[in-house]
Write a structure and sequence with these properties.
It is a single chain. By secondary structure, the chain is an alpha/beta fold. The chain has three domains: 3-156, Alpha-D-Glucose-1,6-Bisphosphate, Chain A, domain 3 (3-Layer(aba) Sandwich); 161-371, 3-Layer(aba) Sandwich (Alpha-D-Glucose-1,6-Bisphosphate, Chain A, domain 3); 377-460, TATA-Binding Protein. The protein has helices at 24-41, 58-71, 84-93, 126-138, 158-167, 174-180, 193-203, 232-241, 268-280, 296-303, 315-325, 348-362, 366-371, 391-401, 442-460; strands at 3-6, 9-13, 47-52, 75-81, 98-102, 111-117, 152-154, 183-187, 208-212, 245-249, 256-259, 286-290, 308-311, 327-332, 336-338, 377-384, 407-408, 413-417, 420-426, 432-439. Helix 9 packs parallel to helix 10 (296-303). This is Phosphoglucosamine mutase. Keywords: Isomerase, Magnesium, Metal-binding, Phosphoprotein.
Length: 461
């Protein structure tokens, strides 16, 4: 069993003893702590928006969250089966105090989580999260009497509202997309992408749509993280059906990647690169991505006359840096697109609208578009952590070993080797160390990662 408390929310495996997994008692405790924190910061606004992906545990967790919030005297607007970006948009549109998204993103089906939003529909800051955790640890919350219980209502209008915002966004070119008459295959991984992605595609003028893993039951047909090794069915179907491209999203639809017409991967790192290229071609400005993302974004940004800035990993960190440098586009190399004048959150749906606009206007195939960008290879690896492992000590030993190389310790440890780099950090979402390395040569990237992973294993002993 696992329970992880971080800037990415309260995340854990369902069941087990309280405090060791995401048990019903933990759901109630952390929801109560969050609701109490909201009320202390704004006692006048007692409205919270919630929504969930299609996880098997989703309905159970939702019922616990709703009842807890109502018990605090908070009114709940429940979007039901939804997406992370849709809930973020709804929080602001509803003038709510905050929101909770019930999803563990890319984690397997035994996981679920509470993603916590502020009144802007953005993830709460690290400092705010620390306050919530302190309230939870002290169980410092009081529930209201029967005459002051919150009000519960459902709202199923935000799918269409989200779609309308996308088709009306100035840089989304519906006529150009419609004219290309794209044939598309979608991997919806048995979650809400099966509802939302086809709706967006149809609104963009795409009519030839095949959806794989289309039953919205949370019984993920494959590992739900949209990585190449998990997208073989999508790749095969694109090739077999002679589709123009394939689209894959994660269970809560905030990550986006594409498959080329020959079944090869466009590369999740290059989703942001392509969208940034499109936006920067029409709006001059700066870009941001996290320290684990490809330097191809920096190359494209400099080409368009802008400045690139890296941030610590985590959506809230990317958003903070984007605001600081007034970025016109940003995100994360895991296929997370953040369009600031749309909303400050990773959104696969606006990403689809912008990517398809770029592809349609380019008059290229998706493979040709990918070939127009600089080639970098990222090797993405991880090492599982046993309880009690001193990660800080391991990182200190590695830093000492490579002390003659340029090192960044803003978020974990990033070491540069001429034009290559490796970034190692503990995950916000799993009990692991992530090791990402990049080079213009695939073998070199893999070898750098293997060398660092061997160092970690030696220092763990």
């Amino acid at each position: 069993m696992s329970l992880i408390k971080s800037i990415s929310g309260i995340r854990g495996t369902i069941g087990g003893k309280p405090g060791e997994g995401l048990s019903p008692l933990d759901v109630v405790k952390f929801t109560a702590a969050y609701g109490t924190w909201l009320l202390r910061n704004n006692s006048e606004n007692k409205k919270v928006v919630i929504g969930r992906d299609a996880r098997i545990s989703g309905e159970m967790v939702s019922n616990l969250v709703v009842s807890t919030l109502i018990g605090l005297g908070i009114d709940v607007v429940d979007l039901g089966l939804s997406t992370t970006p849709t809930v973020e948009i709804a929080v602001k549109a509803e003038n709510a105090a905050g929101g909770i998204i019930l999803t563990a993103s890319h984690n397997p089906r035994e996981w679920n989580a509470l993603k916590l939003l502020n009144g802007e529909g953005e993830f709460i800051s690290g400092a705010d999260g620390a306050e919530v955790l302190d309230i939870a640890a002290k169980e410092d919350f009081n529930f209201v009497d029967v005459n002051k219980l919150g009000i519960y209502q459902t709202n199923d209008s935000y799918l269409q509202k989200h779609v309308d915002l996308i088709v009306n966004y100035p840089l989304v070119d519906v006529p150009a997309i419609t004219k290309r008459n794209f044939k598309v295959v979608v991997d919806a991984v048995n979650s809400t992408g099966a509802i939302f992605v086809p709706a967006v595609l149809r609104a963009l003028g795409v009519t030839d749509i095949t959806v794989l893993f289309d039953e919205v039951n949370g019984k993920f047909g494959h590992n739900p993280e949209p990585l190449p090794e998990n997208l073989t069915a999508l790749s095969n179907e694109v090739n077999k059906s002679k589709a123009d491209f394939g689209i894959a999203v994660d269970p809560d639809v905030d990550r986006l990647c594409f498959v080329c017409e020959d079944g090869s991967m466009f590369g999740e790192e290059y989703t942001l690169v392509a969208v940034a290229d499109y936006i920067l071609g029409q709006r001059k400005g700066n870009t941001v991505s996290n320290l684990s993302s490809t330097q191809a974004l920096k190359d494209i940004t400099l080409k368009h006359g802008g400045e690139y800035q890296p941030s610590a990993v985590g959506e809230v960190n990317v958003v903070t840096k984007m605001k600081a440098v007034n970025a016109v586009i940003g995100g994360e190399g895991n296929g997370g697109i953040i369009v600031p004048d749309f909303h400050y959150g990773r959104d696969a749906l606006i990403g689809i609208g912008l990517f398809l606009s770029h592809l349609a206007r380019s008059n290229k195939s998706i493979k040709a578009l990918r070939n127009s960008y600089p080639d970098y290879f990222i090797s993405k690896n991880k090492i599982e952590l046993d309880k009690g492992v001193d990660v800080k000590q391991i990182f200190e030993k590695i830093q000492q070993k490579y002390k003659n190389q340029p090192i960044n310790t803003e978020d974990g440890l990033k070491i540069e080797f001429d034009k290559d780099w490796v970034h190692l950090r503990t995950s916000n979402t799993e009990p692991i160390i992530r090791i990402y390395s990049e080079s213009q040569n695939e073998t070199t990237a893999d070898n750098i990662a293997k060398r660092i992973m061997q160092d970690i294993r030696e220092f763990m002993i």
